[in-house]
């Protein structure tokens, strides 16, 4: 029974994606009957998936014709994916050179709406591998990348974070809103952020923003290492190399002034 349920669930997901792809590939709005014929399934089955996709915002239904087209959420998702791809290609050489220069792990994250998501990790040369898994959503208050996002992303701000958004992850996590505001203002002024054992004991990070046209915040590049390699008294050479890599990636995305 468990295998059948799992198999049925997979088929359901496959059909939902098939429906979404057919609507996306249609030259104009498309109806339930056409989709059922194209997919070789029943109108009822197609309609159930259409209803869910409309409710989630991935599709939109024309109230006059009852036909379907892509919804806002599909465009948002596509834009976020494109941003991630652009950022990867724009920053690839800079990240590799940064890793090779300092021997530390380099983590690249992209802003997707109001979420900061890791899209690439270049592991350092240490025998102890330290990195962040691709696809990880980063909390904004307790790591260097998050503080950079709060400082440079126009759609984000400390005042938008509720009490539930400021949990104490370690004894070093900043949970006081006013202190976080002070730190974010400092990050904005100096162009980089540090988080020493704030998210994971024994692990530190420093990060700098990657900006695009009109100084739009695209993402962040971070160095991640043990506290022995990134100390509380951050090495100016590490900061210089980090900011140089971030600015190099920013130039590739059309940015023309230093943060």
Structure description:
The chain is of the alpha+beta class and 259 residues long. The chain has two domains: 2-70, Arc Repressor Mutant, subunit A; 76-252, Beta-Lactamase (2-Layer Sandwich). Helix content is 45%, strand content 18%. It contains seven helices and eight strands, in the order αααββαβββααβββα. It has helices spanning 2-25, 32-39, 43-55, 72-102, 144-152, 177-190, 236-252, and strands at 59-61, 68-70, 105-112, 115-122, 137-138, 193-196, 203-211, 217-226. A six-stranded antiparallel sheet has the order 5-4-3-8-7-6. The longest helix has 31 residues, at 72-102. It starts with a helix and ends in a 7-residue tail after the last helix. Residues 1-6 have low confidence and may be disordered. It holds the Pfam family IclR_C. Keywords: DNA-binding, Transcription, Transcription regulation.
